Amino acid sequence: MESLQLPPIDYGALLPMLILFGAACLGVVAEVLIPQRARNAVQLGLALLAVVAALVAVVWQRGTRTITIGGAVAVDGPTLFLQGSILVLGGVSLLLIGERSIERGGAFVSQAAITVGSQKDMQQAGGRPGATEVYPLTVFALGGMLLFVAANDLLTMFVALEVFSLPLYLLCALARRRRLLSQEAALKYFLLGSYASAFFLFGVAFVYGYAGGIQLDVVHEAVANPQRSEVLLYVGLAMVAIGLLFKAALAPFHVWTPDVYQGAPTPVTAFMAACTKVAAFGALLRILYVAFEGVRWSFQPILGTIAVLTMFIGAILAVTQTDLKRLLAYSSIANAGYLLVGVLALNEEGLSGTMFYLVAYGFSVLAAFAIISLVRDADGEATHLSRWAGIGRKSPLLAGVFTFILLTFAGIPLTSGFTSKFAVFGAAVEGGQTWLVIFGVITSMLLAFPYLRVVVLMWLSEPGESAPTVSIPGFLTSAVLGIGVIVTVALGVVPAPLIDLTREASEFVR
Amino acid sequence: MEIGYAPATGVLSNIWLLVAIPLASAAILLLLGKRADKWGHWLGVASVAASFVLGLIFFVSLSGLEASQRSAELSLWDFIVVGRLNVDFGLLFDPLAGVFVLLITGVGSLIHLYAVGYMEHDPGRRKFFAYFNLFVSAMLLLVLGNNYVMLYFGWEGVGLASYLLISFWYTRPSAATAGKKAFLMNRVGDAGLAIGIFLMFTELGSTQYSDVFNGVDSLAAGTVLVMGILLLLGACGKSGQFPLQAWLPDAMEGPTPVSALIHAATMVTAGVYLIARSNPIFSANTTLQLVVVSIGALTLLIGCVIGAAKDDIKRVLAWSTVSQIGYMFLGVGLGGGAYALAIVHLLAHGFFKANMFLGAGSVMHGMHDQVDIRRFGGLSKHMKITWLTFGTGWLAIIGIPPLSGYFSKEPIIAAAFEREVVWEAWVFGMAALIGAGLTAFYMTRLFVLTFHGPARWTEDNQHPHESPAIMTIPLILLAIGSVGAGFLMSTSVPDWLTPVFGEHGEEAHGVLSHTVITVLSLVVTIIGAGLAWALFRRGTALEPQPAGVLVTAARRNLYTDAFNEAVFERPGIYLTRALVYLDGKGIDGLVNGLAAAVGGGSGRLRRLQTGFVRSYALSMLTGAMLVVGAFLAIQLGWLA
């Protein structure tokens, strides 16, 4: 019997993930050891430190192009770029999560599963500080996402999927206000997420049956030299894709998105909208470009149809939304459609354009949710549209910034929304997918309506009788807003440096 | 001949200041608002005067260069860089631009000075000077650009300034309408110019003067013709030539200094500048030249005929401007040596016409803004300086030697008689000759009715008086120019312009000898002037009298306004109404219908979002089955 050989491990390449997982474990320990009063500062500091350290490690590894731990992890241009993006966006999200000045004790509670309405629940919702569990959970999720975009075999990918999904399910249930809605969102997300994971895992089994291996290069080989029935391949591909389409919120697997975005605490919604999107599309890019590139002609029309469907559903349903968080959820669905258009270009421009889009959209959406967390009344955030009527008169700065972000979403030139849409649409035309671009432009027009409706509402409508108050943003939220707006402008006016960076990073190792 | 321009060196690398100084002054006046009311007009005058001094310095240093090197091209920055299109923000100071700079800033300074007095009681004087400075800046950009896009930039700039100044007294409906009319008719011409520039870019890949002029030879004759006609359309619009002449007389609704500077001395001659500047294009096609000559000849006659029938002092002068620019078009159309003659006439006209317009302003100043020459008369006793200076302008325009008009107009008439084709020589020569006679007639009519004969003042308490010194000094200076400039320019300017228009030897003699033409033109002038003097020296009725067909037609601008109204305005109005109807019912209906459909679809789709996790799971399962099914169907050919 052969002795089991330990595969060589490139620790340097794995360092960003190791840092985050290590820091998350430390955070769990700190939760026990650090006294209550100092815990928030320590935990936030630890999490931010870990993110910065991981980012430094990513930058340090920028030249690495390798496959390590026996083919389980690939560290290449897209991996490093996407990991860097996740870390930067995650760091900014952490600032939002760490904000304590808007709501006494922060936006989170510590125990997710207590029955709503019970005395204990009242107690923990009633302003008791604490709830520092969010930090290790967030760092775990970030670590999972880093692994997800680096996974080079389907099982590692599945594990990473679960590693970053489970903390997210929990995070969704931690809202201090509207506990029931929050728990409902978490449960829905968990149930449907598990359901999608099952599809993914089932798909992995089919692909294994077809290729005789789960590593992406093995699958690629098998696709190039078919040995077994193609039914295995296509059923497998379809099901693996479904698992990823779910995470990326593409129709018809988007159904969870509005409910979860609405129910989750706003900082977590922002985190999901920015980082989960990067992770999901990172994995989708890798699978389609590395493993299944050989059957592009069969999946392009099907995924293309899904992209069109997604864009239309996102755009059309956004029109009648009355809740801002739901509106942004549908906008995020439509944006997932645009991203898929970039993915389906299946060329280098598509890869770099999609990565650019992910970063640009991430910053804008973080700023958008940061603003939503500021407009409040006695029940917490006032997210119903009618409450935002005439808000521009009392708080022109806030309304101005939100208007700018909405115009970015609408894709007005000189904002990153324009350059990023231009990047993916341009790539798709180059890749022979002009029909997707046509639908993309049509839905962009549709989507401008709900955005502009909010703008009109904010500036031109009479304020209602009990207008919500606009909180003065604390330092952390101000930082998020500042970063989001500055990056959005910068990527709209001088996109060249980031585009160059994505171009340099747009080659997978196989 | 290869056309190239030397790069600007030394003093000449500062030519951008010419444009920048008046522009900065305009910006200051507009931005400071009321705070600049007290001293704003002096800043306006000073900025143009400074440009004039600089222009003189540049002119002198340009003349210090060797004749073949006499140009200075200055590229400031890349203006438009898109694909193959590469437009410089560049300036060119050459002999042609030089004389225009001196005309614009020189006459401009005097008129600015005059306007200080003329606009003294107007509350909008600061704004007036801001627009006036803006005009000077744009006009200088127009003549200084080194490519057609820069020219177009200035072209639109002067159009804007002209629009703002015509309707300066925008509370008067007639001024507002006149501004709009000028704007719309110019738009027609500007569109032609713009398309002409597009054509240059597509055919030659550049709008740079040097590239375009060197590339003309490589173009098909038809292309040159079309390009030239388009440029000509632009020139006709800006210079009030047939068929786009109708706006210019109405433009006299603006303050008189505006009429003098913009609508007589400088802006309206931009069309002549455009054709002169584009001389390699126009010289390359004889058909094109024939068109230009025809338009010039026709317009000069139209202007004379209508001018003879008008009673408004400024309108008469306006129609005479139309007619005189017709002479210039005739000159640039004739080509060859006549390019320089047209420019000489342009410069001379700039002096004597500005002089007369300002004189007219002075008369109105003393006569309670009365403009009807039937109600003047006998003013020579009351306004000595105005009378004398206007008199020099009158003698200059009708071409009495040794005043400037004689030296500038008579050679154009002679050149018209020298055309190679015999019938053309007769037609255009006779047109120019008859025009000279008519000019003498209506200008004399104007002069006599205004300054001589019995006083026919109708308003009470009218005390005609001479204008203040700030207005008469510019008049005197311009009068000196009207008297003296002609001889000076007719000898030196053609030589000076040789680098631009090329060498031209003695033309072959035409159908009539030069002496005969000189005699003839003097004779018709004297006949025209004498006739008018005899008819009007005893004054005239206060109201226009019933008259024959020709006079009635002339009073109505030869029915050109009626023609425009019937052919363009009415169908335009109907078209607009039809489009509004189509837009309201068709397009808006479609848009609203679409919006309603989206909204309705959204409402219906929303109901699928039940909030029940079981139905979500079901829709995911359905979706999954469809996706898997689609993969299998497409791949395994079950669909096929």
From TrEMBL, chain A:
It comes from the Bacteria. InterPro entries: NADH-Q_OxRdtase_suN/2 (IPR010096), ND/Mrp_TM (IPR001750). It is found in: Cell membrane; Endomembrane system; Membrane. Residues 151-446 form the NADH:quinone oxidoreductase/Mrp antiporter transmembrane domain. Keywords: Cell membrane, Membrane, NAD, Oxidoreductase, Quinone, Translocase, Transmembrane, Transmembrane helix, Transport. It catalyses: a quinone + NADH + 5 H(+)(in) = a quinol + NAD(+) + 4 H(+)(out). Its EC number is 7.1.1.-. It is an enzyme of class 7 (translocase). Coiled coil: none annotated. The chain crosses the membrane at residues 12-34, 41-60, 80-98, 134-151, 157-175, 187-211, 231-256, 268-292, 298-320, 327-346, 358-375, 396-415, 435-460, 472-494. GO terms for molecular function: oxidoreductase activity. NDH-1 is composed of 14 different subunits. Subunits NuoA, H, J, K, L, M, N constitute the membrane sector of the complex. NDH-1 shuttles electrons from NADH, via FMN and iron-sulfur (Fe-S) centers, to quinones in the respiratory chain. The immediate electron acceptor for the enzyme in this species is believed to be a menaquinone. Couples the redox reaction to proton translocation (for every two electrons transferred, four hydrogen ions are translocated across the cytoplasmic membrane), and thus conserves the redox energy in a proton gradient. Belongs to the complex I subunit 2 family. This is NADH-quinone oxidoreductase subunit N. It comes from Actinoplanes flavus. The lineage of its organism: Bacteria, Bacillati, Actinomycetota, Actinomycetes, Micromonosporales.
From TrEMBL, chain B:
Signal peptide: none annotated. Residues 146-434 form the NADH:quinone oxidoreductase/Mrp antiporter transmembrane domain. Gene3D superfamilies: 1.20.5.2700. Keywords: Membrane, Transmembrane, Transmembrane helix. The chain crosses the membrane at residues 15-32, 39-60, 96-116, 128-145, 182-199, 219-237, 258-276, 288-309, 316-336, 385-405, 425-448, 469-491, 511-536, 616-638. It is a multi-pass membrane protein. Pfam families: Proton_antipo_M, Proton_antipo_N. This is NADH-quinone oxidoreductase subunit L. It comes from Actinoplanes flavus.
